[in-house]
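Q: Could you fold this chain for me?
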Amino acid sequence: MAPTNSKVIEDLKAAFAGESQANRKYLAYAKKADEEKLPYAAKIFRAAAEAETIHAHSHFRVLDGVKSTAENLQDAISGETFEFTKMYPAMIENAKAANDKTAERDFHLANEAEKVHAELFKKVAADPTKPAPKVYVCKVCGHVHEGSIPDQCPICGGKSQVYSEVL
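A: Sure. Below is the predicted structure, expressed as structure tokens.
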């Protein structure tokens, strides 16, 4: 049963956000440690990231955040659509106004990938029992592609080597 106290609900949402961010941050740190050939540091970062995921999932469950797959797909469609219609366009404009080309490109790539994500969630929602095809993610921009690896990412232009298969 989900909590009803508004302060507890806000605390759980904040904890979920914080744990989620820590997971992503620690995975980025692990990647850097790998690049610097520091496997012990990388392993501890990955272990902490996994622990943060456990915490985030627990907080989300207490919030009663996981529903049926049909409801979860609709939530995902809504979230991705918000990102590419409202969130990223505003961020792109802010980066342009600040003349920050790096942030502008980063936001633009994410925005274009979010459009693809929303369409894929819609496709799955239309027939969630369909057999799963091979799925690949571009490690540069987050483009998701079904089928065989594309020769070039349609969003960032990366070659096929930038894709990794989602298992």
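A (continued): The CA atoms of residues 12 and 59 lie 6 Å apart.
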